[in-house]
């Protein structure tokens, strides 16, 4: 890496006038480097900021280069773009029917993907660039390096010597006192979609540590439908016509029980084995909203298999399964972009899922899920105080781990109810231009 050579050069030439502290506190604990400059320590009490390609220079990467100055002067702020995209409906309706729509959607996709460091940088064990941090996908990546272990306080040099009790923090700052309906009119159908969709790649592997993930695909691999490993996938498959195992209740298709598809699922002891549904994601027994989406995707997979088999009578089970999975991945991304992100963004620009938009341009298809992304996606305030299913009000004890609710009401009734019930306001949706 260019940064590494720069660092070596500095050490060899010993050009820096160093920052000294009275005792030898790791100087990087002060976070001296600005504008994404990288703090490199080369003596107990000395550091340099590697400002390579930051657009800044100087001891702490604080002085803008000429190009940076010009760019900052002429470039409109992200808030400006957001303003334009969320107003002038008539304008966007005209754009919608021209090639300019494709150009802007392409721009949105490339600009946003370029905000993310790629290849991935740090993880919870490595605060510097390393092969291990790059290649070991058992870790979530980290955009910001962890605070060095030898800092005087858990936050570097600021804050208390010991972090306050988490329960205290939650109760004081995070816990909701009053339900606030979402001003964008987000409903529970959206909320459960968010939870269902993101739990294919947000799967903290607690047993290994908070910095680890079980979602080795790091993206939209539909492991929440098919399982995150081959053994689980096989336990969920029917091995006939590409289909997934299922059971029929009241004439409708539902996920099989764990007796039929022996996969590890999290259920409390009071849920009898014959009521335990088997799904791709081990936590989806938690909420009828998640089971509902699991059921919808199960039905969709098997429906697509029927169509594929008709069109390709010669395909074996494996090819039908694999092709159906690819189709469901495409369907998922289409829904995520054209409905889910469209809603979140509040844009009047009509977003579009079209892989061909990115043909012929540089685009990074590989992805790595970051701890920060996971942290910001804890949209728990979306949840209501109770759940209204066809006029009947259920509290949390009635609702959680209640697999009968899915089969008693059926998918349509749940879709109807979740669509009508408004979700809570999330204070900081992360979708800003
Ligand atoms: C009643 C509904 C919900 C309950 C009871 C619930 C409960 C939980 C629990 C117990 C955890 C584990 C916390 C930990 O390990 O520290 C968790 C994690 C999480 N929740 Fe929820 N949650 C709910 C709804 C949602 C919704 C609607 C979202 C929306 C996106 C969401 C997003 C997340 C995320 C991203 C994580 C981290 C997952 C991981 O890394 O493994 N949750 N939730
Ligand atoms: C660089 O940062 C350090 C630590 O924050 C500060 O003490 C020092 O004055 C800064 N130097 C310059 C040239 O900005
Ligand atoms: C946008 O254009 C597409 C076709 O390009 C059309 O199907 C859709 O209805 C249009 N939407 C709006 C809001 O004009
Ligand atoms: C990834 O790192 C963890 C923790 O050090 C280790 O247990 C695991 O074996 C590593 N995985 C690979 C594929 O090297
Ligand atoms: C939830 O409702 C049930 C009645 O359906 C009631 O017995 C129970 O006490 C309620 N639980 C809570 C936590 O309010
Ligand atoms: C589960 O939901 C059903 C409604 O479908 C309800 O009758 C039942 O009481 C709920 N179970 C529990 C344990 O609350």
TrEMBL record:
Q: What is its EC number?
A: 1.14.99.1
Q: Which UniProt keywords apply?
A: Dioxygenase, Disulfide bond, EGF-like domain, Endoplasmic reticulum, Fatty acid biosynthesis, Fatty acid metabolism, Glycoprotein, Heme, Iron, Lipid biosynthesis, Lipid metabolism, Membrane, Metal-binding, Microsome, Oxidoreductase, Peroxidase, Prostaglandin biosynthesis, Prostaglandin metabolism, Signal
Output one GO BP term.
cyclooxygenase pathway
Q: Give its localization.
A: Endoplasmic reticulum membrane; Microsome membrane
Q: Which residues form the signal peptide?
A: 1-18
Instruction: Give the reaction(s) catalysed.
Output: (9Z,12Z)-octadecadienoate + AH2 + O2 = (13S)-hydroxy-(9Z,11E)-octadecadienoate + A + H2O; (9Z,12Z)-octadecadienoate + AH2 + O2 = (9R)-hydroxy-(10E,12Z)-octadecadienoate + A + H2O; (9Z,12Z)-octadecadienoate + AH2 + O2 = (9S)-hydroxy-(10E,12Z)-octadecadienoate + A + H2O; (9Z,12Z)-octadecadienoate + AH2 + O2 = (13R)-hydroxy-(9Z,11E)-octadecadienoate + A + H2O
Cofactors required: heme b
Domain of life of the native organism: Eukaryota
Q: Where does heme b bind?
A: 380
Q: Which GO terms describe its molecular function?
A: heme binding; metal ion binding; oxidoreductase activity, acting on single donors with incorporation of molecular oxygen, incorporation of two atoms of oxygen; peroxidase activity; prostaglandin-endoperoxide synthase activity
Membership in a protein family:
Belongs to the prostaglandin G/H synthase family.
This protein's assembly is summarised as: Homodimer.
This chain belongs to which protein, by name? Answer: Prostaglandin G/H synthase 1
The beginning of the lineage is: Eukaryota, Metazoa, Chordata, Craniata, Vertebrata
């Amino acid at each position: 890496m260019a940064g590494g050579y720069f660092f070596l050069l500095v050490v060899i030439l010993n050009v820096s006038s160093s920052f000294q502290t009275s005792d030898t506190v790791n100087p990087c604990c002060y976070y001296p480097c600005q504008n994404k400059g990288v703090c490199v320590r080369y003596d107990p009490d000395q550091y340099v900021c590697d400002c390579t390609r930051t657009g800044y220079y100087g001891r702490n990467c604080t002085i803008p280069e000429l190009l940076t100055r010009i760019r900052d002067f002429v470039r409109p702020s992200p808030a400006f773009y957001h303003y334009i995209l969320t107003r002038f409906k008539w304008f966007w309706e005209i754009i919608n029917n021209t090639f300019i729509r494709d150009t802007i959607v392409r721009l949105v996709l490339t600009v946003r993907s370029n905000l993310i460091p790629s290849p991935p940088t740090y993880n919870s064990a490595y605060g510097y660039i390393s092969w291990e941090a790059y290649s070991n996908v058992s870790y979530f990546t980290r955009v910001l390096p962890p605070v060095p272990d030898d800092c005087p306080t858990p936050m570097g040099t600021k804050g208390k010597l010991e972090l306050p009790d988490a329960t205290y923090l939650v109760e004081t700052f995070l816990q909701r006192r009053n339900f606030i309906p979402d001003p964008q009119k987000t409903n529970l159908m959206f909320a459960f979609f968010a939870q269902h969709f993101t739990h294919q790649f947000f799967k903290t592997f607690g047993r290994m540590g908070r910095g680890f993930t079980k979602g080795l695909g790091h993206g939209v691999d539909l492991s929440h439908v098919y399982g995150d490993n081959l053994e689980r996938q096989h336990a969920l498959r029917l091995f006939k016509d590409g289909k997934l195992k299922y059971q029929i209740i009241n004439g409708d298709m539902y996920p099989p029980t764990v007796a039929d598809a022996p996969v590890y699922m999290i259920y409390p002891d009071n849920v009898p084995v014959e009521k335990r549904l088997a799904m791709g994601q081990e936590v989806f027994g938690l909420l009828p909203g998640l089971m509902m989406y699991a059921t919808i995707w199960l039905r969709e997979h098997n429906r697509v298999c029927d169509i594929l088999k008709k069109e390709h009578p010669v395909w074996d089970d494996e090819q039908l399964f694999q092709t159906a999975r690819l189709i469901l991945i495409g369907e998922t991304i289409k829904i995520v972009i054209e409905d889910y992100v469209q809603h979140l963004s509040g844009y009047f620009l009509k977003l579009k899922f079209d892989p061909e938009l990115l043909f012929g341009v540089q685009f990074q298809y590989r992805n790595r899920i970051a701890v920060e992304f996971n942290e910001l996606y804890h949209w728990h305030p979306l949840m209501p105080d109770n759940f209204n299913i066809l006029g009947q009000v259920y509290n949390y004890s009635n609702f959680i781990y209640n697999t009968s609710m899915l089969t008693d009401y059926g998918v349509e009734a749940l879709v109807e109810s979740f669509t009508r019930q408004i979700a809570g306001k999330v204070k900081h949706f992360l979708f800003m231009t």
